[in-house]
Structures are given as structure tokens and as C-alpha cells.
Amino acid sequence: MYEILRLIRIRTIAFAALTMYAMRYLVIRPMLDINGLALQMTGWAFFLLVVAVCCLISGAYVINDYFDTKSDRISGIKKVVVGKSISRRVAISLHTVLNLFAVSIAFYLGFAVGVWKIGILFLLVSGILWFYSSTYKKYFLTGNLLVGILASLIPISAIVYEIPLLNMAYAELLIETGTNFLYMFDWVFGFAWFIFLNTLMYEINKDIYTVEGDRENGNHTIPVKLGIRAAEGIITALAGVAMISAVLAYFVEFSASLAILIYIIFALLLPYGIYIISILSGKRKRRFQLWLIRLIMVLCLGVSVFLRHFFLLIFAD
Questions:
Q1: Are 89 and 135 in contact (CB under 8 A)?
Q2: Total Cβ atoms within 10 A of residue 93
Q3: Which of 71, 147, 157, 295 is the 20 to 30 A CA-CA neighbour of 13?
């Protein structure tokens, strides 16, 4: 059982679920509450959506390990599970079941909200993740960018089913006021942007420590193609973009909140700074670096805790 949990990356699944629930209850619902509106997707339906997303993520990790067995053995960085404690046949069967479950739930929810085509998105992502593991990750930059983009869809998935239901429930109000619910996407996209940047940093950082296995497996990662120092420079630049984004977010959106300013300085800018120093030090501290960027991902999500009070300031008449 423990090996199965390692294979499906239980920590990553927990973060994905936390992200989706944070978007629903700390970002989307406060905006609706302030305007006297309510969430339309039931708690049970949203739970199913979270399960579907987590199954898709788990399936992606299973198939990735399935194709990466050789390079993982050469790199010696992480314990190889597929082909040892879990057979390759069991792994591919688990991947199939997880993806079928995810896509089935997605179509069920799509029909329930009257937009069945949303299910096609899950089917498309499932296929992309297969080809990422088997093919795309071998291409220079393609694999890293693809993982970053797909990771950024996690917070967005929390709202794509909600919007159609809100449009149906408040159709008359929207017509009378000439408004829509698309403004909520702006806030969710903000979190998606940081997840994209952090995931990109994490993936490139991880590739630094698997360079030998990637080279042997024909994966044209940034460290393989450009060298480790160049990869470290790119990571530093991305961290700099994230820091600038956090500062701009404060001055553009959050300047009325002292609490958010303090949080951004000590919970975002400081950890990013430590991460950059760790990268530029030239010391190969894999565990510390990857642990720190995971922590930063959670801390970026932590901004959502302050939003209810902040929305009261900007949305109240």
C-alpha cells in the first residue's frame, strides 16, 4: 500500500485538493457572498470534481514512472517502484483505471451542468499526459512548459463547472445588470500564474539532479541541452519573475491591506530569496531546494486566506 501511495504521489494529490478547495471557499465563495449570491455546485459534486482531478494527476505520475524506469535507475535519485515492488502490468492497469475514472466523472459533471464538452478537456489532458511521458518530455523546453501549463489548470478547474451553473441560476440578474461572472477568473488566474512559475522552477530544478539519466534516455532537458549553470540561471530568472509578480500584485490589487504586504514580504519574497541564494551558491542541495519550492507553492496559496476581508474592501458598495 505504501508503494502505491509513493507511486501516485500522495503529497501532490493533497496539494491539488487543497488548491481546489482554497479556490472554492477562500476565493470564489467570498466574492459571491459579498454580492448576496451563492455557490451553485453542490459540495458532493465538487468533491467528485476534486477526485477526478486527483485521479488524472495520479495517473500521470504512474505513466511517467512507467516510462522513466531506465533513467531513474541511472540517476539513482529516487527509488524505482515500477518494475520492482509494483509490476509494469499493474502500473499500466492502474493508470488506465485512474484515467477512466477521471474522464467518466468529468463527463458526468459536464452533463449535470449542461456543458458536457468540459469532459472533453479531461479526455484531452489525459491524452496529453500520456504523450508527455512517452514523447513530449524528450523535447527541449516542451516537457517543462507542458507540465507547468497543466499544473496551472488545477485552480482553474475549480471554477469551470461553477460558472455555467451561476449563469443559469442568476440569468435574470445578469441581464438586468449587464454583468457576468468572468471577473472571478481574474483572481483564479492569478493563483494559476504562480503555480505555473513554481512548477516550472521545480521541474527544471529536478532535472538538474537527473541529468545523467535524462541524457541516457534521450531527454533533451534544459540541463542536458544547455548545461547545469544555464539551468540554474533560468531558475533564478523565473524566481525573479515570481517575486516581481508578487510585488506588482500588491501595488495593483492589495495596496489597501497591510496584512497582505507583511505576508508577501515574509512568506513569499523571503523564501524566494533564500531559494535563489541556494541555487546560485553552486552547492547541490537537492532535498532542500525541492522542499523549499514545494513550501513556496503552499505559501503562494496562503494569500487566499486574506481575501475575504480584502473583497469586503473592494466589492462593498
A1: no
A2: 12
A3: 71
